[in-house]
Amino acid sequence: MSEDVILKVRDVYRTYDIKGGLFKPASTLTAVKGVSLDVARGSTLAVVGESGCGKSTLARMLTMIDAQTSGSIEIDGLPIDISKTGISREMRQKVQIVFQNPYGSLNPRQKIGHVLEEPLLLNTDMPAAERQDLALQMLQKVGLLPEHYGRYPHMFSGGQRQRIAIARAIMMKPKLLVLDEPVSALDLSVQAQILNLLADLQDEMGLTYVFISHDLSVVRYIADKVMVMYFGEVVEYGTREEVFDNPQHDYTKTLFAATPQADIESIRKRLAAKAA
Amino acid sequence: MSLLEIRNLRVEFDTAKGPFRALDGVDYLVDAGEVLAIVGESGSGKSVAMLATMGLLPDTATITADKMDFEGLDLRSLSAKERRKVIGKDVSMIFQEPIASLNPCFTVGFQLGETLKAHTDLKGKQVKDRVIELMTSVGIPDPGGRVNAFPHQMSGGQCQRVMIAMAIACAPKLLIADEPTTALDVTIQKQILDLLVKLQQDSGMGLIMITHDMGVVAETADRVIVQYKGRKMEEADVLSLFENPKNPYTKALLSALPENATGDRLPTVSDFAEAGGF
Lengths: 276, 278
Fold this sequence. Notes:
The complex is a heterodimer. Helices cover 39% and strands 25% of the residues of chain A. Chain A is an alpha/beta fold. Chain A has a single domain (5-275), classed as Rossmann fold (3-Layer(aba) Sandwich), CATH 3.40.50. In chain A, the strands form 2 sheets. In chain A, strands 6-7-8-3-9-10 form a 6-stranded mixed beta sheet, sandwiched between helices. In chain A, strands 2-1-4-5 form a 4-stranded antiparallel beta sheet, covered by helices on one side. In chain A, a hairpin with an 8-residue loop joins strand 1 (5-18) and strand 2 (27-40). In chain A, helix 4 (112-123) packs across helix 5, helix 4 (112-123) runs parallel beside helix 6 (158-170) and helix 5 packs across helix 6. Chain A starts with a strand and ends with a helix. Chain B is an alpha/beta fold. Chain B contains 12 helices and 11 strands. Chain B has helices spanning 46-54, 80-86, 98-101, 108-119, 124-137, 143-146, 156-167, 186-203, 214-220, 238-243, 248-255, 269-276, and strands spanning 4-15, 18-30, 35-39, 61-64, 67-70, 73-74, 91-94, 174-178, 206-211, 223-228, 231-237. Chain B has a 6-stranded mixed beta sheet with strand order 7-8-9-3-10-11, sandwiched between helices. In chain B, strands 1, 2, 4, 5 and 6 form a 5-stranded antiparallel beta sheet that branches. In chain B, helix 5 (124-137) packs across helix 7 (156-167). Chain B is globular. The two termini of chain B are 33 Å apart. The A-B interface holds A 50-51, 158, 187-193, 195-196, 199, 214-218, 220-222, 254-255, 257-264, 266-268, 270-271, 274 and B 41-42, 156, 185-190, 193, 201, 212-219, 238-239, 242-243, 252-254, 256-259, 261, 264-270. Chain B: This is Stage 0 sporulation protein KD. Chain B: Pfam families: ABC_tran, oligo_HPY. Chain B: It is a peripheral membrane protein. Chain B: Residues 6-254 form the ABC transporter domain.
């Protein structure tokens, strides 16, 4: 295969033990069942599914928050298995994550400058002055101003906070960025701004995205490849065109049918059906 | 006569920095059997308007209106006690977070029954029968068993069905749904929207859908009001709004939909704000 694959996941499982109670025996829950995927450098893979389908568990494993139970993950040629080897600084620099809720993912008592510098403080030996320079540059890169450096998270709107979260994630110049529903909590117009920002950053820094979402219209806009998950399993995996134009699995078809249609034809059809 | 007629509604909140005007002179008219969608971003005042109608705003809010009639009854002059006879019975509301809207300490059957006890003469067994009937009508499987379930034992979609059952318990004339599907998955959203539209058509009640999702508007509404920063930007029937939006803000909102993307970049509302001057 000539494609430059940056993220290689093979047959990954994740099981959680559920503690038994007085009347309930202990059991295990398999959140992710044998997921395999390849992501080419500089491309975007969208992971789609409902709550409880294991898409966030997958994100946690890719970002080394959680260890996989079995299977292999390889990011930029570096095998990841944190339950056996732990996490090195090198691994940390490969991958970063942006969470869904920009209100919850920033510490309210930490100034924005410190938020941005913390990854450098923890993972590099960079002197303070250099860290500050980098943080200021990064603020501008994500469309904020240098004077925002000393402010606290509560002084920002949801869209601005998501910009800060993105800035923090790219401070380490990662190769891979995992975006866990980065625009679901945002208004439509702010969503458009953030999606534009992500597209710009991808061009500029050659980033690879794993974009987790339940919103198919966003996925269709941003993804190169699409993976649909259902109860921990991959039920559909292919290029955007393959999945959207010719969905194979019943669940994918249900998902498409359930997505509200905002085009004029469907409105006309609905009104006609209602009048009849 | 309209079911709900509100003229020139203003809502101000007292804040430490002086009064903040959340809603500035907006009219709302809803007829029986009509689905009105109020669409806007956060801060547009879409929820505030309906909370003001329901009398659910905190004391810091000052509500003024030239007219605020529900079926000819002036809502402004009602005492809290009189208002409670209307609210929950003839006008009811469902909210965004179904799990947070239910009391975790009581079974869903008990909570449904409370509405009936407050507004109807039903007693004992009759209440229980009606509760099961309601739960059946909103499509909860095994209603006889689920009556005794607590909210945490049900999924988000099921809880929203319970909320809908509660809202329609007394056959309201007007149902206000404040972002009823925002917290739910797409497939569940479809079921809930279908259910709401079906109930509305069967009973002929008026339905107000508050939402920020243009897809939901397209799927449910007859008429649409677009709001921005407490002002009404545009009011039109659903087809002409999507086909031929007049207001620059509506245009901006529609073109920011990812499915309408034409080029590499999505147009944002601020691109339009400069050109349209709103």
